[in-house]
Write a structure and sequence with these properties.
This protein is α+β, with helices and mostly antiparallel strands. It is about 45% helix and about 15% strand. The protein contains 7 helices and 7 strands, in the order ααββααβαββααββ. A 5-stranded antiparallel β-sheet has the order 2-1-3-7-6, with helices on both faces. A two-stranded antiparallel sheet has the order 4-5. The longest helix has 27 residues, at about 120-145.
């Protein structure tokens, strides 16, 4: 896309928003519509689905958008709270940059459920590290493996962006990431599967027990009748 086409698209976006926010009534309608959509996405990410239980506790998650592909990878110790807030954006920056209406897929992995398959020595290490450090270690390993663009730069106080070399990070997650190669392998395999797993259009979510994939864009489709 050349600069002119990009600028035209940006102006078109601003024009559309100007129409949607043209008066107080339409502003209220816009607010309601956006929150209703975000709330539905949050519920799909966390509520029980079929035989699958509600998503709670430690989890890894990633957001895909059409065209851009995987945009962001994160982790949380409170999936029941963080994943509901993720599309709302009140305490998470992602929705401010990539609106949830454009999210093509969200992948969630409940990594503690993979621990029984991990090598015995790594289970002891995870107990020693604790779920917070282990979650950060797995998040780092997943970010290095997938290089999501929104994790690969950081904002600067000068108003621009600075590239991040994830592979050379000295964060807590990076320091411990090499300690659990077996668990990391299991996480990456589950991630690869859920990233490609077909999501049934009638439900917009598929749950494997270990994790789930959600299709926010499916919510834009009219119900079959």
């Amino acid at each position: 896309m050349d600069d002119q086409t990009y600028d035209d698209a940006y102006r078109g976006w601003r024009t559309s928003l100007t129409t949607l926010l043209a008066d107080p009534a339409r502003l209220a309608r816009w607010q309601e519509r956006r929150f209703q959509f975000a709330h539905r996405v949050g519920a799909l990410l966390t509520d029980g689905h079929g035989a699958g239980p509600a998503v709670t506790g430690p989890a890894l998650y990633g957001v895909f958008a059409a065209g851009a592909g995987l945009c962001y990878v994160g982790q949380t110790q409170e999936a029941e709270r963080r994943l509901r807030d993720l599309p709302v954006g009140e305490s998470h920056h992602l929705a401010n940059t990539v609106p949830p209406e454009l999210w093509e897929r969200v992948v969630v992995i409940r990594w503690p459920l993979l621990l029984p398959e991990a090598p015995v020595n790594e289970r002891s290490l995870v107990d020693d590290m604790g779920p917070t450090i282990c979650g950060l270690a797995l998040e780092h390993a997943l970010q290095v493996a997938t290089a999501p663009p929104l994790n690969s730069r950081r904002r600067r106080t000068s108003g621009d962006w600075q590239p991040r070399n994830l592979a050379q990070s000295r964060s807590r997650g990076a320091i411990h990431a090499q300690s659990v190669p077996g668990l990391t392998h299991l996480v990456l395999a589950a991630w690869a599967s859920l990233s490609k797993l077909e999501i049934p259009a009638y439900s917009a979510v598929v749950d494997t027990g270990i994790g789930r994939a959600v299709s926010p864009t499916a919510l834009h489709q009219p119900p079959e009748g």
